[in-house]
Design goal:
The chain is of the alpha/beta class and 165 residues long. The chain has seven helices and six strands, in the order βαααβββαβαβαα. Helix 1 crosses helix 2, helix 2 runs antiparallel to helix 3 and helix 4 packs parallel to helix 5. The chain is globular.
């Protein structure tokens, strides 16, 4: 019986301090880093078979946009349907054999998840699970032996590569 984790995307990004800090740079950077964290988590821990992150969107597309990153899938809603409703629809459509956990601090989502018999994980609990207790991820990376000029040069090259300059 498959085990799935459904995450209320922006709810998580706004409550996980490390991701919230990345949001100041760009929302896309924060989303992509969140996906990367979950991919790393899935590679090390086989708690879930698949993780779905549902994000609100203002697009007027005809359907939900999906991007797959191996065991992690992102879903972007359309302007007429918010992430909370999509999560509830996913729970409604799930097979009774599926074991589903939902991570959100939104009462609407949490109450519906409980109503459908899903496990509910707070965003704080999710953060503890996926951070794998690596406190060094939260700090700045400092490479010993690099002079300040070298660090600036590397940063400038990365900014050019990422199209930020």
């Amino acid at each position: 019986m498959p085990k799935y984790l459904i995450i209320d995307g922006y709810n998580a990004i706004n409550k996980i301090k490390y991701l919230e800090a990345k949001k100041d740079f760009s929302l896309e950077a924060s989303r992509l880093f969140f996906v990367k964290m979950l991919i790393d988590f899935m590679a090390q821990k086989r708690i879930f078979d698949k993780v779905f992150i549902v994000f609100d969107s203002k697009e007027r597309d005809l359907g939900i946009k999906r991007d797959s990153y191996g065991p992690v899938e992102t879903l972007f809603t359309t302007i007429d349907k918010d992430a909370d409703s999509v999560i509830v629809d996913m729970l409604r459509a799930a097979s009774p054999k599926d074991r589903i956990s939902v991570s959100s601090d939104d009462n609407f989502v949490r109450n519906h998840a409980k109503g459908f018999g899903s496990d509910v994980i707070s965003i704080r609990e999710l953060e503890k699970i996926i951070m794998l207790k690596k406190k060094n991820l939260r700090g700045k990376i400092r490479e010993k032996g690099l002079k300040e000029d070298a660090v600036k040069g590397i940063n400038e090259e990365l900014k050019k590569h990422w199209g930020l300059k």
